[in-house]
Known about the structure:
Number of domains: 1
Distance between the termini: 85 Å
Radius of gyration: 21 Å
Strand content: under 5%
Number of helices: 3
Mean pLDDT: 85
Largest sheet: none
Amino acid sequence: MYKVEIKMERVKPRSNIWYLLPIFVGLIGGVIAYFILRNDDSKKAKNCLYVGILLAVVGIIIEIVIVTQIPSLTPNFNVNV
């Protein structure tokens, strides 16, 4: 006979407010939200991690654009002038 196994994933609905953690804290907030939510709602945990990674990459890109395109906005560290 064939044995059929049904794998049930535990999904405890969590609030969408968890997305605010990676939005305000960035990559670290995404990692924290992931480790808190991973056992209850794995899909939301992964999405929080992705939001944190995405916002970190966007921040790095914006910083590179500011430094390379607008040199007047870069800090002046010439202390020996």
